[in-house]
Write a structure and sequence with these properties.
Mean pLDDT of chain B: 91
Largest sheet of chain A: none
Mean pLDDT of chain A: 77
Number of helices of chain B: 27
Strand content of chain A: under 5%
Order of helices and strands of chain A: H
Distance between the termini of chain B: 35 Å
Number of helices of chain A: 1
Shape of chain A: rod-shaped
Strand order of the largest sheet of chain B: 6-3-9-11-10
Low-confidence stretches of chain A: none
Helix content of chain A: 55-70%
Helix content of chain B: 55-70%
Largest sheet of chain B: 5 strands, mixed
Oligomer: heterodimer
Structural class of chain A: mainly alpha
């Protein structure tokens, strides 16, 4: 039971670490969110 | 014996000295963790300058003006916040006030959440702190600049703690709670968030507090709302909003999880421009869902940590806030909201319903922490079982004795997080507590370092101070062109920001309050602002502006937007530098008189101030008495 729990914990840990790395790598990629609109009227919800 | 008492007894160490030292060490670890979270989130703010992002505006020296307390034609949305900032500005610099406020919000929220569960287990506290302060709600409200709402958000866990104490008969907790509710009431939304939680705790049946405490607290909470309620009610034009704002500011899906999933994971703000990039990443959402699952896993545990009234109050408010947030998407919900917004004075407060997720956020944070505690206990139990099985190979009698010993003689690190025995077991327990504390950061990495650069400080061009010096408050109010609420300056990172000039210039300003959202413009409530807009489109703009009480026109040249043809030629040039120009409206300047009556508004502010002063004095007196008793006991 204890070994089984340890194996499950290790798998969960690896999955979480993988998701963390994938998220961090993707977030560090430049996105198009910084494109600036040059409309005359600036919207409240402009990016 | 109540559930919290049972938990406290179970947490108790064999001797009170060891328990005290352990709790003290745990407090320091929690404080360090909260400071670390604050530093990682707001580190860039250490640079000189002002953070300008959407509604978040800070200026070097905001003046205390009649409009700061609601004596103007505008709806008092930032009242008495503007007065409080102006007073703080007179002691500290504007940028210091802003940075202390933001750091105080994040640190206070994290620390309050960490202390809200009556448990000494440090790992559990770290999880509560992380989940409460590192989530999409905080990201989105920070970036959109709703920092006054976040003041109330930070106060919520403290109000839960103080409400618990008051209910246990400790009347000394009433004064700090009233103080926190007062600071939260610097804006209407913050006032509602804080007063609803503490008021419900105060008035809920049961508890050892007397009727006098209930009445005193409830009256104080009501009177603290007076500075924004009185000018709203007494303004000549009704404080109702256009119903089109309901659709414009309705909660929206900000992730692939849809609207419900976005709200459940504390996102869903109406403004797509302030949503973190990570909300679009499946990996980040998977981590966020793990945090939510942890909260669900711990929900049943919360009863062991919180009193029945606390849990019922927080649960009811969380459900209410969630309902308000999602209401526009429910059948008939939009119609009900439109009626409330357009017919009930002050109803416009609920059109951006996602902000009322604050109560739900606290519930999620505490439930996630309880889930982590349950996880640690399971890990401990599993490790103890494994240890017992191993020993059974040699002696079944020894197994029983070993398991019993393991349950009572935990290693030090394991005890701090409620973990299992032995080096390996304690490692598992520490991991089971710390990994959930790190999960929110892994799920939302772009909240780090000033929301990934969105909260970097900027400095005003020198031309701005030249215009402020040239303007004379005795010649009427100022209108800033282009006549639209938002700006995008290259010197402020080309980010959308509410025009800082009305607060910067130190004189009364007429501010356009019609908000362009998407393809529509949500009409404002300020009749004077609308008449100024019409005057700017008229044939005799200068003459009409003078009649409306406008004596100055400032023109920001470095932001998109149009300046009416022919207007500037009819004005007197005062300060022309090509970046921020100032013109004087010729002729006799009129006075705009359609504002709330001064006497009741000022009386409301005096009542508000007196309550805060009395509460502060009580807090200080009790702190001084405690300190004196502590010194006496050390001497004896």
């Amino acid at each position: 039971m204890g070994n089984f729990g340890g194996v499950v914990a290790a798998i969960v840990g690896v999955v979480l670490a993988g998701l963390t790395v994938v998220t961090a790598v993707n977030v560090s990629q430049p996105s198009d969110a910084d494109d600036v609109s040059h409309e005359e009227l600036i919207n409240y919800d402009d990016n | 014996m109540t559930a919290p008492q049972a938990v406290a007894r179970r947490d108790a160490a064999p001797d009170s000295g060891a328990r005290h030292r352990r709790a003290h060490r745990g407090d320091w670890i929690l404080l360090c963790w909260c400071v670390l979270l604050t530093a990682v989130m707001l580190g860039p703010l250490a640079a000189p300058g002002y953070v300008l992002s959407y509604d978040m505006v800070a200026v070097p020296d905001q003046a205390l003006l009649p409009s700061s307390v609601g004596l103007s034609s505008a709806v008092p949305r930032a009242v008495p916040l503007d007065a409080a900032v102006a007073l703080a500005d007179s002691v500290l610099t504007g940028q210091l006030v802003q940075k202390l406020a933001l750091a105080g919000i994040v640190l206070g929220a994290a620390l309050g959440a960490g202390l809200a569960l009556p448990t000494v287990r440090t790992g559990t506290r770290l999880v509560a702190a992380s989940v409460y302060v590192w989530n999409a709600y905080v990201f989105e409200r920070l970036v959109i600049g709703h920092w006054p709402t976040l003041i109330a958000y930070a106060a919520l866990p403290w109000l839960l703690i103080l409400g618990r104490r008051v209910r246990r008969g400790r009347t000394s907790a009433l004064a700090p709670a009233v103080l926190l509710a007062g600071v939260s009431a610097l804006t209407p939304t913050g006032g509602l968030l804080a007063a609803a939680l503490f008021g419900a705790l105060l008035l809920a049946p049961g508890g050892r507090h007397g009727r006098r405490t209930r009445v005193l607290g409830a009256v104080a909470l009501l009177l603290l709302q007076a500075p924004w309620v009185v000018p709203s009610v007494l303004r000549p034009d009704p404080a109702v909003s256009d119903p089109s704002g309901v659709a414009a500011f309705a909660a929206a899906s900000d992730s692939p999880l849809g609207l419900l999933g976005s709200l459940l994971t504390l996102g869903g703000i109406w403004n797509g421009g302030v949503v973190p990039d990570s909300r679009a990443l499946p990996s980040a959402l998977a981590l966020t869902v793990v945090v939510l699952a942890l909260a669900v896993f711990g929900a049943t545990e919360l009863r062991r940590h919180l009193g029945r009234a606390e849990l019922a109050t927080l649960g009811a408010l969380a459900a209410t806030g969630f309902l308000v947030a999602v209401s526009s998407a429910l059948p008939g919900g939009g119609s009900v909201l439109e009626w409330l917004v357009s017919e009930v004075p002050g109803g416009g407060l609920i059109r951006d319903g996602q902000k009322f997720l604050a109560w739900y956020a606290l519930l999620v944070a505490l439930a996630a922490a309880a889930g982590a505690a349950r996880l640690v206990r399971l890990a401990a139990s599993s490790a103890a079982t494994a240890a017992g099985t191993a020993r059974a190979d040699t002696s079944s009698a020894a197994t029983a004795a070993g398991a019993a010993a393991n349950r009572t003689t935990l290693s030090a690190p394991a005890r701090r997080v409620g973990g299992p025995p032995g080096r390996a077991g304690s490692g598992v327990a520490v991991a089971a507590a710390l990994i959930p504390a790190l999960l929110p950061i892994a799920a939302l990495p772009d909240l780090a370092w000033g929301a990934a650069g969105r909260l970097e400080p900027s400095s005003y061009p020198a031309a701005w101070s030249d215009v402020r010096a040239a303007i004379d408050g005795g010649h009427g109010d100022v209108v800033v062109l282009p006549y639209q609420p938002f700006r995008r300056f290259s010197w402020a990172g080309d980010r959308t920001v509410l025009d800082p000039a009305p607060r910067y210039l130190g004189v009364e300003a007429v501010v356009p309050d019609a908000l362009p959202v998407g393809d529509a413009v949500v009409p404002g409530e300020d009749r004077r602002a609308a008449e100024v807009a019409a005057a700017l489109d008229g044939d005799d703009s200068a003459g009409e502006l003078a009649v409306l009480g406008v004596g100055w026109v400032a023109v920001e040249r470095d932001t998109p937007g149009a300046v009416p043809d022919g207007l500037l030629e009819s004005l007197e040039s005062v300060e022309i530098n090509g970046t921020f120009d100032l013109y004087r409206v010729p002729g006799v300047i009129g006075t705009w008189t359609r504002i709330p009556p001064a006497a009741p508004v000022i009386a409301a502010d005096i009542v508000f101030s007196v309550i805060l002063v009395v509460a502060s004095a009580d807090v200080a007196r009790r702190a001084f008495s405690r300190r004196r008793r502590s010194l006496r006991s050390q001497e004896s």
